[in-house]
Amino acid sequence: MEKILEEVLNSNRKYTNYGQVAGYIPELKKAKRDDLGICVIDKDNNIYKAGNWDTKFTIQSVSKIVVLAMALMDNDWQYVFSKVGKEPSGDPFNSIMKLETNDTKKPSNPMINAGAIVTTSLIKGASLEEKEERMLKFFRKLAKNDNLGINYDVYKSEKMTGDRNRAMAYLLRNDGFIQGDVEELLDLYFKQCSIEVDTLDLARIGVNLASYGVDIETGERIIDEKVSRIVKTFMVTCGMYDASGEFAIKVGIPAKSGVGGGILASVPNTMGIGVYGPALDKKGNSIAGIKILEELSQKLELNIF
Ligand SMILES: NC(=O)CC[C@H](N)C(=O)O
């Protein structure tokens, strides 16, 4: 398997020359565009790695699936979906437009920034500190990595420049989709996006989702089974933003991307995959990452459809 991963990386290395490393969060510009890595963990807990599999990057929007799982386990689902929708938006991840033009003004889904700000607001905790602690604990458990932590340079960079998210959050509060202190909520959102991971962490979260929320090593249930299904369904319909349809056709695997350059893919009952390549297309998805997943899906016949 490692040989296959090496081959797939090498045949797609050329794509690291296309696209751009994210620049709207200044700190992200420091990523090296030719870094490329992958990790696969199968359901028997075999771990396969290639390339820059252990390069650290921030999880960014991949965090949205973990926080959605948490929000659904912390709250009544009906309540959650009264605050955030279930439909693809067809707009970029940071679009504000439908918060005005949607009939209900409700954010379309939890995979775009507006919807993710809502799910973050649904994390339970008596104080900001407690919410942050619970959130980190959940990420660490799912990734089986007690060393997961926040990259404070990226966090500060996002906080300084996150006015679009700030604008969305104030609109969301005005329309009754979130409550309380907006700055505190954004603090938590920026922190969740700034959690530092490598492809092994993404693959581990992916395989735990692939096994319907049961830790494949210990047998412990981490995510409610139905919640794990909802999360993977959102990954298929909205995980690659307004490129989710094309990705579903070409790759056919539930996946979630982030502007840090990571993609987490979860093949039900089979494996979790983490890929990293920081140069992004215009929609904010890793170009080489998508190409790698496309080839791997064909080679290993992973298409779930
Ligand atoms: N697509 C992403 O990864 C976006 C996450 C980023 N932290 C933002 O809010 O803009």
TrEMBL record:
<dbReference type="InterPro" id="IPR015868">
    <property type="entry name" value="Glutaminase"/>
</dbReference>
<dbReference type="GO" id="GO:0004359">
    <property type="term" value="F:glutaminase activity"/>
</dbReference>
<feature type="binding site">
    <location>
        <position position="158"/>
    </location>
    <ligand>
        <name>substrate</name>
    </ligand>
</feature>
<feature type="binding site">
    <location>
        <position position="61"/>
    </location>
    <ligand>
        <name>substrate</name>
    </ligand>
</feature>
<keyword id="KW-0007">Acetylation</keyword>
<dbReference type="GO" id="GO:0006537">
    <property type="term" value="P:glutamate biosynthetic process"/>
</dbReference>
<dbReference type="InterPro" id="IPR012338">
    <property type="entry name" value="Beta-lactam/transpept-like"/>
</dbReference>
<comment type="subunit">
    <text>Homotetramer.</text>
</comment>
<dbReference type="GO" id="GO:0006543">
    <property type="term" value="P:L-glutamine catabolic process"/>
</dbReference>
<comment type="similarity">
    <text>Belongs to the glutaminase family.</text>
</comment>
<feature type="binding site">
    <location>
        <position position="259"/>
    </location>
    <ligand>
        <name>substrate</name>
    </ligand>
</feature>
<dbReference type="Pfam" id="PF04960">
    <property type="entry name" value="Glutaminase"/>
</dbReference>
<feature type="binding site">
    <location>
        <position position="189"/>
    </location>
    <ligand>
        <name>substrate</name>
    </ligand>
</feature>
<protein>
    <recommendedName>
        <fullName>Glutaminase</fullName>
        <ecNumber>3.5.1.2</ecNumber>
    </recommendedName>
</protein>
<feature type="binding site">
    <location>
        <position position="113"/>
    </location>
    <ligand>
        <name>substrate</name>
    </ligand>
</feature>
<feature type="binding site">
    <location>
        <position position="241"/>
    </location>
    <ligand>
        <name>substrate</name>
    </ligand>
</feature>
<feature type="binding site">
    <location>
        <position position="165"/>
    </location>
    <ligand>
        <name>substrate</name>
    </ligand>
</feature>
<keyword id="KW-0378">Hydrolase</keyword>
